[in-house]
Design brief:
CATH class of the largest domain: Alpha Beta
Shape: elongated
Number of helices: 11
Number of domains: 2
Oligomer: single chain
Radius of gyration: 21 Å
Number of strands: 5
Strand content: 5-15%
Helix content: 40-55%
CATH topology of the largest domain: Rossmann fold
CATH architecture of the largest domain: 3-Layer(aba) Sandwich
Strand order of the largest sheet: 2-3-4-1-5
CATH superfamily of the largest domain: P-loop containing nucleotide triphosphate hydrolases
Largest sheet: 5 strands, parallel
Distance between the termini: 44 Å
Structural class: alpha/beta
Order of helices and strands: HEHHEHEHEHEHHHHH
Length: about 270
């Protein structure tokens, strides 16, 4: 559903007293999911737009992934969500906890949050934003009402996409030297992409970058350009490279590793 439709649904539930204690908002955490959370906050705090924008409202708690690995750890979860949300409301009204990138909770952090979700104080609302609902702990998902918004495209667009596309044209990588040069090129492109966005968007750019590469190796498979058993190895190589990048291994190490493993179509 679109943001306006989702907002109307949640707004009616709040007004009727039939709201869920937690909403799992599946969409773009820095796009439409964040917009929906903003509309809900504006409804509950109509005179506090400035403090909410500055993240200084005493009854609204925010948490998002931090660090190079872009994860949510236990201590920040306790300090920024569990503790503040268990306190009495300063205004005597609503308390709202907004967790962006809910799929990035480490297991201990998810367990620390689960009790707050299971036993919320009165007039408490949790908004969990994610574009990877399958990576959110099952027990958390089961205690939230899921709201599905249009997901962002999983690939790069525009000039960034065209730059990556050139590397993965059939016949482009017919020598070791070509692969090495391509790995350096891809690393430079990736670093430029992540260097041009805020910390909260790095995970999304990384996902789209590797999603673009994955789209190429899957196309080779479906079009029969690479033997099927080798095509599956290609998919595994891209998945492993993506996993390594999530562990903050530098792109100049990850991408040559990936390029060495890939089997390219012949020209």
């Amino acid at each position: 559903m679109e943001v306006s439709e989702a907002f109307d649904l949640i707004s009616r539930a709040i007004d009727s007293g039939q709201r869920s204690g937690g909403y799992l908002i599946v969409g773009d955490p820095v796009g439409n999911a964040r917009d929906l959370a903003g509309r809900i906050l504006a409804k509950l705090y109509p005179n506090d737009a400035g403090r909410i924008a500055a993240r200084s409202h005493p009854d609204v708690a925010f948490l998002e992934p931090t660090g190079k690995a872009r994860t949510i750890k236990t201590d920040p979860m306790r300090e920024r969500i569990v503790g503040p949300m268990s306190a009495t409301s300063y205004s005597g009204g609503w308390k709202v906890g907004v967790i962006s990138g809910a799929d990035r909770m480490q297991p201990q952090a998810a367990n620390a949050f689960l009790k707050s979700l299971e036993e919320p104080t009165p007039r408490t609302l949790y908004l969990l934003l994610t574009d990877r609902p399958d990576a959110v702990m099952d027990t958390i998902v089961s205690r939230c009402q899921r709201i599905d918004l249009p997901l962002p495209k999983g690939v790069l667009e525009g000039e960034a996409a065209r730059a990556v596309d050139e590397v993965f044209e059939p016949g482009a990588m017919e020598s070791v030297h070509a692969r090495a040069q391509a790995a350096k090129f891809l690393s430079a492109e990736y670093e430029e992409l992540v260097g041009g966005v805020g910390d909260e968007e790095v995970a999304i750019v990384r996902k789209r970058f590797y999603g673009t590469i994955m789209a190429h190796v899957r196309r080779w498979m479906t079009e029969g350009l690479v033997p099927r058993h080798l095509a599956f190895r290609n998919v595994e190589a891209v998945e492993e490279a993506y996993a390594r990048s999530e562990r903050s291994i530098k792109s100049e190490s990850v991408l040559p590793f990936m390029m060495d493993k890939l089997v390219f179509p012949a020209s």
